[in-house]
Amino acid sequence: MSPEVQRLRLTFAKKEEVKHIAHLDLMRLWERALRRAEVPLARSQGYNPHPFLALAAPLPLGVTSQNELLDIILCEPMSPDLFLQRIRRQLPPGIELLEVQEVGLKLRSLPSQVRYSEYRVTMETDRPLEEIEEGLRSFLSKESLPWQHLRNGEVRRYDLRALVEDLWLLEHRDGMIVLGMRLRADSLGSGRAEQVTAALGFAQPPRAIHRTQLLLAQAQ
Question: In whole angstroms, how far apart are CA 89 and each of 21, 116, 120, 148, 187?
Answer without folding.
Answer: 20, 31, 29, 44, 35
